[in-house]
Write a structure and sequence with these properties.
single chain; 15 helices; alpha/beta; 2 domains; 553 residues
Length: 553
């Protein structure tokens, strides 16, 4: 099997995101509340649970109906309720395969969750997270991103939404369905923007500051954050952002989106002039059809000379429709609308090992340099030898598998991240900060003696400070990805403190961590986050010069 690069990244995510939702990390599915807490929202009163010093409200509706006649459209207005509504159970995630320890997916999925130290009108920074899973799977209740420890240990408010995904969130009907369906290709992102508006109107009741909101997200959530960073409808409701292992440089064009819609209608035997039949198709049938269509359509490369997440992110994803999303998030430049909003961007050093783990791959970790040449040639052709030579020169002690992981990881997430920080730095506006997450897990890829290192998605539990020793003093359980070494607790604290300080001030900082300079185009500083953090100037200089020379950056 060929290496996974950014262009086919999402095709691997369906099982992957399900896998990373397995660990419990203390998510509150079965524990009893210490007490119940009631608060007001603009739609009515809700009751949440206080647990271990954190008030938790789950399944709060932030939008109305998006099924039936509202399918592919803006949500119906959310109706107010009388009495006190329970906010004690997660709301259903968007239509997808069933998720472990969560409600059954449903078409009406506009619910959010809030973690706060107290409903006391204190103006805490708000950290608004968009889940991963590309644009086709995932949930705001995924276990590794439990917001309790961030709220408790760093005095912030955490918010996460469920929102429409896949073709129900991103089917482009603007050209055939009329004004009621304007923006249909971006409904999933518009849902997130509606969640941000809800935060603006309500978060003060949860001890949060509506004037200090950070948006962030990992993997597909990073790409969603890239879109929000460029969206006029989201702009009034956030102040800073972080794009993590998911650089959304480019999104789909209207032309590509229209072709995807035509492909879907053909599969369903629905003429374009009878498109309203889509409103009657059961969600199970839509999900089955979605699975049949290519995640990355064969016509992806028409609009991008470079492959990757800067091209089409999936069969169904955000559309540059000149209205909701006026232009590509970071092409040709960083968005002017967010010029004055600080930005964090980065990736994990060994992104690729996650996908090898998920697919039970072993062959790449046994090959020699001749095997590496053969492995890379289908992707890089005549440039293959130059690429290998560059990496061998930069890392003389690296094995062939080491170099394969390094190449696969930087092309998957690194090149797009660097593209973003360079364009943001060129704006001469708010600062941008570049990071690499580098804490090394000793866990082995099954069937090999090769350690996972810092795989894709391992950062989630670290930045949410969910890698901590048990509070009761018992022996720590092995982390799902992070392994057994106690140093992981230090790395997690560093990561979480850097992010929460950025949320509070717009500048990432932490105790026992070197000062993190903003990125610039002279010495290009990068913070390497681990149990011992360090600032590295001009990291990967030789490798990046090579990638530029062959047109990949």
């Amino acid at each position: 099997m060929e290496p996974i690069y950014r262009r086919d990244f999402l095709s691997q995510l369906s099982l992957a995101t399900a896998a990373i939702s397995l660990p419990s990390f203390g998510f509150l599915n079965s524990r009893r509340a210490d007490e119940f807490v009631t608060t007001e929202t603009s739609y009515g009163k809700i009751k949440g649970a206080r647990m271990d010093g954190v008030n938790i409200f789950k399944g709060i509706p932030y939008g109305g109906k998006v099924s039936g006649e509202r399918r592919f459209r803006r949500p119906a207005p959310l109706e107010k309720w009388t009495g006190v509504r329970d906010a004690l159970e997660f709301g259903p995630p968007a239509i997808q395969s069933p998720r472990r320890n969560e409600p059954a997916p449903a078409e009406d999925c506009l619910f959010l969750n809030v973690w706060t130290p107290a409903n006391d009108n204190k103006k805490r920074p708000v950290m608004f997270y968009s889940h991963g899973g590309g644009f086709v799977i995932g949930s705001g209740a995924s276990a590794s991103q439990d917001g309790s420890n961030l709220a408790r240990n760093f005095d912030v408010v955490v918010v996460q939404t469920n929102h429409r995904l896949g073709l129900l969130g991103f089917l482009y009907l603007d050209e055939i369905a009329g004004q009621d369906y304007a923006g249909s290709g971006n409904m999933g992102i518009l849902d997130i923007a509606a969640g941000l508006k809800w935060v603006h109107e309500n978060i003060a009741q949860f001890g949060g500051d509506p004037g200090n909101v950070m948006i962030f997200g990992e993997s597909g959530g990073g790409a969603k954050t890239s879109c929000l960073y460029a969206m006029p409808e989201a702009a009034p409701y956030f102040n800073k952002a972080s794009i993590e292992s998911g650089p959304g440089v480019r999104m789909s064009t209207k032309e590509i989106a229209a072709e995807t819609t035509a492909m879907l209608l053909k599969e369903l035997n629905i003429p374009a002039n009878n498109w309203r039949k889509l409103l009657e198709v059961p969600t199970a049938d839509l999900l089955a059809i979605q699975a049949k269509l290519p995640f990355v359509p064969p016509f992806q490369e028409r609009n991008s000379k470079r492959s990757g997440m800067q091209g089409r992110l999936g069969g169904f994803g955000p559309v540059v429709d000149e209205n909701v999303l006026p232009h590509h998030p970071f092409d040709p430049t960083a968005p002017a609308i967010s010029k004055d909003k600080p930005l964090l961007v980065g990736w994990n050093e060994d992104e690729y090992t996650f996908f090898a783990w998920e697919r039970k791959e072993t062959e790449p970790f046994k090959m020699d340099f001749d095997g590496l040449q053969k492995k890379l040639e289908p992707q890089y052709g005549a440039d293959t030898q130059k690429i290998i030579q560059t990496y061998r020169k930069a890392t003389p002690d690296a094995t062939a598998p080491d170099i394969f992981v390094a190449i696969s990881s930087i092309t998957m997430m690194g090149l797009g991240s660097i593209d973003i920080v360079e364009k943001k730095a060129n704006q001469n506006g708010a600062p941008v900060y570049l990071y690499n997450f580098g804490y090394k897990s000793e866990k082995k890829i099954p069937g090999t003696e090769y350690a996972m290192g810092t795989p894709h998605a391992m950062d989630i539990s670290f930045k949410f400070n969910n890698e901590i020793p048990p509070r009761d003093g018992s022996v720590p359980k092995e982390s799902f990805f992070g392994g057994n070494r106690p140093e992981r607790f230090i790395a997690s604290h560093h990561f979480a403190e850097l992010w929460t300080t950025f949320a509070r001030t717009g500048k990432p900082a932490a105790k026992d961590v070197p000062a993190w300079p903003a990125y610039n185009l002279k010495d290009r500083p990068t913070m390497r986050i681990a149990d011992k953090c360090e600032v590295i100037k001009n990291r990967y200089a030789g490798e990046l010069t090579m990638w530029r020379s062959i047109g990949k950056l």
